[in-house]
Task: structure prediction
Amino acid sequence: QVQLVESGGGLVQAGGSLRLSCAASGRTFSTYAMGWFRQAPGKEREFVGATNWSGDNTAYADSVKGRFTISRDNAKNTVYLQMNSLKPEDTAIYYCAASAWFGVRVSLAEYAYWGQGTQVTVSS
Result:
């Protein structure tokens, strides 16, 4: 079992950057694939990016490809989401999630553990 706590959200102007962090409890963090998802008001939760257990394989939604980067530090039990060139449409609550699979996972259904989320607001 793993518990997840996100941080780093906030208000930023369009074109700006933010780095989200997700701290995980438990000694088995390095065995989990990790993902970031987001949910805007009135919309369904959607995939943003994911990494495998070691961090050497990643995947991104087309809408963030080239702007967002997911990374992880297994020694610190932490996964990050670096968000650059932010747009107003990136405004959402961002959630990190852990999957018991080793490889990259892009489907919400494959993630068993979720954080509480952190709000990201991008002003135009």
